[in-house]
Amino acid sequence: MAELFYDDDADLSIIQNRKVAVIGYGSQGHAHALSLRDSGVDVRVGLHEGSKSKAKAEEEGLRVVTPAEAAAEADVIMILVPDPIQGRVYEESIAANLKDGDAIFFGHGLNIRYGFVKPPAGVDVCMVAPKGPGHLVRRQYEEGRGVPCIAAVEQDATGNAFALALSYAKGIGGTRAGVIKTTFTEETETDLFGEQAVLCGGTAALVKAGFETLVEAGYQPEIAYFECLHELKLIVDLMYEGGLEKMRWSISETAEWGDYVSGPRIINDGTKAEMKKILGEIQDGSFANNWMKEYESGLPRYNEYKKADQEHLLETTGRKLRKLMSWVDDED
Ligand code: NDP
Ligand code: MG
Ligand code: MG
Question: Is the ipTM of this complex over 0.95?
């Protein structure tokens, strides 16, 4: 059984007695910096020359310095810049400013798991990863709640790294909801697998294939959009509340019968074999290495895929339909 930690298990004074640098002020960075500050923690934000988010951080009353200055001042350094550039930011601004006893923190394990960042032996290496987007992390904190987090220690140089990670998680509201203990390896591999096979990749491909099948058979794109994309939210909400069981309790018996007999024909042994291959490429590092190469060469294939899907009939139909649906909120 996974180990869970709540407010009473975490000592906020540990992080209150440290100096924290939050490097990056995007989705996660703004949530961590503001909530730690509101939890009574000494926080500075590290941002590069010409950063678009600098003005926003300063408007909120945060002190913004360069990533190198932030790392030099602080003894807990949380890296919240995009994953593909963390290696570079670490080399350029952080490595030289790490002292024995410092701690380096991550919101996702990729750079440690695949060795793109290699911290020295004398520092604690921790992860506090909220299981939700940064804007929700901040909103929940302000409302007295929190987003569940996972926490991990890759290197426990001081002997107190996990207590420090829990204290940090408390500072952003995580222990209000619950913190699950994991490892960098488990977090990285399951996160990449989940988003590729199920949450983002699998779901997007399923929706597109279903939509195309109906449209190619002559049905109206608007009807196909409702059936294959719009209604997905209603089904997923039921699963979220009560698992497959609650979803099946709510749908008609006809839908439930179709679910049992047709679902396994769509996601079949071949699909699962492909999932295992995808997991293999995550575990052996080839996915991460290919992604880094793509990023460093200026994202040519990424941009091609993105453009093709933006022009897909599913998306052009959806854009038109959502404007007509007053109850759908398309703003973020
Ligand atoms: P964002 O893309 O939202 O934010 C990136 C931030 O880094 C921006 O403030 C950007 O500044 C800044 N930045 C870019 N380059 C540099 C640099 N060279 N030096 C300093 N700052 C720089 O990132 P996310 O919050 O999405 O991701 C951060 C980490 O959190 C990642 O490890 C990610 O995996 C993890 N994570 C993210 C989640 C999410 O909700 N998005 C959920 C859980 C984990 P500017 O834009 O001003 O140039
Ligand atoms: Mg992810
Ligand atoms: Mg129906």
Answer: yes
